[in-house]
Design brief:
heterodimer, A: about 150 residues, alpha+beta, seven-stranded mixed sheet, about 25% helix, globular, B: about 280 residues, Naphthalene 1,2-dioxygenase Alpha Subunit, Chain A, domain 1, two-stranded antiparallel ribbon, 8 helices
C-alpha cells in the first residue's frame, strides 16, 4: 500500500475514534513520547510555542481523557471530522512529514450543528512495529477563536 | 465647512494611557486616578510579584468566545468560591483540597481583587494523606502537569488578579496569562488569553509552563467550565426575571478576607459599576 493510502487510513481511523466517542483509544494513535498540540496559524506564524492543549507524552493524553470523563463539566456534544487527503512530505529520522487539512463540525445535544474548527494537521508519523503512530501532531487551526470551550480533542 | 470649523476640535476621543510593568492601561475619564492608586497597594503588590523587574515574552494568544454577557465573566473571575464547586479537576485527581489556605483581597474602590491559594506545608499534606484512602484510578499518569517550581518567596500556587472592568492577571503553578474580555453584543463576550513566560526562562522552565498551561485557556482542565457556565446561568435565569435570591456569602461588604469562601470581590465589582453608571 502506498504511503498516501496508509496515512489516509490512519487519519480515517483517528477521526472515527474521536467522532464515535472512543476516546480511551485515542492515545494509542501516538508514540509514547509524542507531542500533541492544538494551536493556530497565527500563533505558528509568530513562533509562539504554547497551545490550548499541549501534551508531550502519551500519558498526558490519557490524563486528558480521564479528566474529560470524570472531572470536567460541559454540555454534551460530539464532533464530525472531515479529513482531507494527506500531502506526504519528506521522511526523516523523526518520521514521515505529513500535512492534512481537516474540518470539524460540532453537534450539540439539542441538535444544533456548527462549524467548530478548520485547519491542518502537521504531523510526524512513525512506523512502530508495523503500526503507524503520530510522533508529533500539531493541530494548526485556521482561526485563533474557539467557541465556548474545547473539550473533545481535534 | 463653515468658516469657524477647526479640524483640531473634531478629533477622536482622547484616551489617557499609562503603563504598569509594560502593560498599557487606558481610560476615557479625566477622573480616573493613577493606575497604582486605582488598583491600590495590595493589588499592586501582586503585579509586582509576577511582573516586577522581569522581562516577559508572549508565548501564545487565543480568543475564547463566551455565550454570555461580559459582566458574567467579570463576576466569574472575582468569584473565588466557585472554583472548588465547578472546577473538579484538582479534587478528582486529589491534587489539592477545599480547605487549602488562601484569601481574598479587594481594593478600596471595590473593582480590583486578588484571590490566592497557598500550598499546604509538608506536615499538613502528610496528616491529610493518613485520613483519606488513596484511589489509584484517578492518579495522573504524567505528574509533570503539576511539578511546580516556586519562583517567588511564598507558597502561593494560584493567583488571580482582577482590575476593573475587564482585566485579569493569572499565575497558576508556573503558568502565566493575561486575560481581557470585551463585549461582542449583549450576550457574547470575547475572552482573550495571552500566555507568557519570562524572557530569561530556561528551556526546562519554558517547557514546564507549556505543560502547566493545560490548566488554563479554552481547553483548560480547571478553566474550560468557565466557557460554558455563564451561558448556563443566563439560560437558567431567563425565566425568572422578577425573582431574586440573595446569599450574602462572606457578609454584605467588600472588605478583604482570609478565606476564599466569600463573594466580596463580586460585590466590589458591582458597587463600583453602579457608582460609575449611576444605576
Amino acid at each position: 500500500m502506498s504511503a498516501l493510502l496508509q496515512v489516509a487510513e490512519l487519519n480515517a481511523a483517528y477521526a472515527a475514534t474521536i467522532d464515535a466517542d472512543r476516546l480511551e483509544a485515542w492515545p494509542d494513535f501516538f508514540v509514547e513520547s509524542c507531542l500533541y498540540k492544538i494551536t493556530s496559524a497565527d500563533n505558528r506564524k509568530h513562533g509562539y510555542s504554547a497551545g490550548i492543549v499541549y501534551a508531550d507524552s502519551r500519558a498526558m493524553l490519557h490524563d486528558r481523557v480521564t479528566a474529560l470523563r470524570t472531572a470536567n463539566i460541559y454540555e454534551r456534544h460530539s464532533y464530525r471530522h472531515i479529513v482531507g487527503l494527506p500531502v506526504i512530505g519528506e521522511a526523516g529520522d523523526d518520521g514521515l512529514a505529513v500535512e492534512t487539512p481537516f474540518l470539524v463540525a460540532r453537534i450539540m445535544r439539542d441538535g444544533r450543528t456548527d462549524l467548530f474548527a478548520t485547519g491542518v494537521y502537521l504531523d510526524r508519523i512513525r512506523d512502530e512495529f508495523g503500526r503507524l503512530r503520530f510522533a508529533e501532531r500539531h493541530v494548526v487551526c485556521d482561526s485563533s477563536r474557539f467557541d465556548t470551550l474545547l473539550a473533545i480533542p481535534l | 465647512m463653515p468658516p469657524g470649523f477647526r479640524v483640531e476640535q473634531h478629533g477622536p476621543r482622547q484616551l489617557r494611557v499609562t503603563t504598569l510593568h509594560g502593560l498599557v492601561f487606558g481610560t476615557f475619564s479625566d477622573q480616573t486616578p493613577a493606575i497604582e492608586d486605582f488598583i491600590g497597594p495590595e493589588v499592586l503588590a501582586r503585579f509586582n510579584r509576577i511582573l516586577g523587574g522581569r522581562k516577559i515574552e508572549i508565548i501564545g494568544r487565543f480568543v475564547e468566545v463566551l455565550p454570555n454577557n461580559w459582566k458574567m465573566y467579570a463576576e466569574n473571575a472575582r468569584d473565588s468560591y466557585h472554583a472548588s464547586l465547578l472546577h473538579l479537576f484538582f479534587a478528582t485527581f486529589k491534587i489539592n483540597r477545599l480547605s487549602q489556605g488562601g484569601g481574598l483581597v479587594v481594593s478600596a474602590n471595590g473593582g480590583c481583587s486578588v484571590s490566592e491559594t497557598i500550598a499546604p506545608t509538608q506536615s499538613d499534606d502528610t496528616a491529610y494523606a493518613g485520613m483519606r484512602s488513596v484511589d489509584d484510578e484517578y492518579m495522573l499518569r504524567d505528574p509533570r502537569l503539576i511539578d511546580v517550581v516556586d519562583e517567588h518567596p511564598d507558597r502561593v500556587r494560584h493567583q488571580i488578579v482582577t482590575v476593573f472592568p475587564n482585566f485579569v492577571l493569572q499565575k497558576t503553578q508556573n503558568a502565566m496569562a493575561l486575560r481581557f474580555f470585551t463585549p461582542d453584543g449583549v450576550d457574547r463576550t470575547n475572552l482573550e488569553w495571552i500566555y507568557f513566560g519570562y524572557a530569561d526562562d530556561t528551556p526546562e522552565m519554558r517547557q514546564r509552563r507549556l505543560r502547566h498551561l493545560n490548566l488554563g485557556g479554552p481547553a483548560g482542565f480547571v478553566s474550560m467550565e468557565d466557557g460554558c457556565v455563564g451561558g448556563f446561568v443566563e439560560r437558567g435565569i431567563a425565566t425568572a426575571e422578577s425573582e431574586a435570591a440573595i446569599v450574602e456569602m462572606g457578609g454584605a461588604g467588600i472588605e478583604s478576607q482570609a478565606t476564599r469562601a466569600t463573594e466580596a470581590a463580586v460585590r466590589g465589582f458591582w458597587s463600583l459599576w453602579r457608582r460609575m453608571t449611576g444605576i
